[in-house]
Design goal:
Helix content: 40-55%
Oligomer: single chain
Number of strands: 8
Order of helices and strands: EHEHEHEEHEHEHHEHHHHH
Radius of gyration: 21 Å
Shape: globular
Strand content: 5-15%
CATH architecture of the largest domain: Alpha-Beta Complex
């Protein structure tokens, strides 16, 4: 761990829940930061694997929660134990790039005292499978397309002044088990803080995605995004990964399904012509993502990603949306409107 007299002291805060498979590499990357003054705090959220033993091998501070409270609570507890003027949040399955901390602090200083700075994923994932690389590209393109402006900043790479964090009340420990960083970002925006997305502040994610895990992730994220969006009355917002492009992609998939069924039922080829037109328009609307796939990994990957994104991925997202719609009325009655 480094200590310097000139650089602003930073606390890196990492929540962990059964992350034994990744937390060691996460800590190695964090401790290898080229920044001059920082500490690393790991908050273990009642792991039942070997996480604690792994963390104890590294020169960092370990805080163990007495009961399982979720990632938001773990981050809030980490902030309460932090000595840094700046807090930098990342995840136990993310590998900070060596210059991420320095770049985040520089961007925060340049943006002013009422700013919060967020980073994103590297173009390619750590594990480099097709589904992991697709996810990394998908998230990065969605999060950075309007940089430096941002609708939300994700806690896989977020730098905030400790005083700002404490005044804000910290991350909401609400009823949704994910999207606490989105809720926190919107909370900051309502308090007139400026959200700055800096794509140079990057972490490399360890996804280990298979087809099943990719689709399960899409389903889960879509389910909770739907509930959050309904609660906050921003269903149609173009917000990061809940983008207009993804929403158009899902709508196009269901339209194409209906057109295909109509064509098969009637034997009229015009329905298939309409299907082709809808899908062509959809791919045109999502051309930035598909171009990013080609830039990151070449034409063959982009072709495979196009087929996956347009033909398979929308099924999981659409199912997640329907599940969120079905679950929302009971959830709203139990927890209230605001997520």
């Amino acid at each position: 761990m480094n200590a310097g007299s000139k650089a602003t002291f930073v606390s890196i805060i990492i929540p962990n829940r059964n992350g034994a498979g990744t937390i060691g590499r996460c800590l190695e990357a964090a401790l290898a930061s080229r920044y001059d003054a920082f500490e690393v705090i790991v908050v273990d959220d009642c792991s039942t694997d070997e996480s604690v033993a792994v963390v104890q091998r590294y020169p960092c501070r370990l805080v163990r929660l007495a009961y399982h409270g979720g990632a938001a609570r773990a981050r809030n507890v980490g902030a309460a134990h932090a000595g840094g003027e700046i807090l930098f949040f990342t995840d136990a399955d993310c590998l900070m790039q060596p210059d991420a901390l320095a770049l985040a602090c520089r961007a925060l200083a340049a943006a002013g005292p009422r700013a919060v700075v967020g980073g994103t994923y590297t173009w390619l994932a750590h594990d480099r499978s097709f589904f992991s690389d697709f996810q990394s590209i998908f998230v990065r393109e969605a999060e950075t397309k309007r940089a430096p402006a941002a609708d939300y900043l994700a806690t896989h790479a977020l730098a905030i002044y400790a005083e700002t964090f404490r005044r804000s009340g910290g991350l909401p420990e609400g009823p949704l088990p994910i999207l606490e960083d989105v809720a926190f970002s919107h909370q900051l925006k309502r308090a007139d803080y400026h959200l700055v997305l800096d794509p140079t502040v990057a972490v490399r994610h360890i996804f280990n995605f298979t087809l099943r895990r990719s689709l399960a992730n899409a389903f889960t994220k879509a389910r909770y995004w739907t509930m959050y969006s309904l609660a906050n009355r921003d269903w149609l917002a173009d917000s990061g990964t809940a983008s207009h492009g993804l929403k158009a992609n899902v709508a196009a998939w269901f339209m194409c399904l209906l057109l295909a069924l109509a064509g098969l039922a009637t034997g009229d080829a015009h329905w298939f012509g309409l299907l082709l037109a809808v899908q062509t328009g959809n791919l045109g609307f999502n051309r930035r993502l598909l171009a990013a796939c080609a830039t990151a990994k070449g034409a063959r990957f982009a072709l495979a990603a196009t087929i996956y994104y347009a033909c398979v991925y929308p099924l999981a997202v659409g199912a997640g949306v329907l599940a969120g719609l079905a679950r929302y009325p009971l959830w709203e009655a139990r927890h209230g409107v605001r997520a």
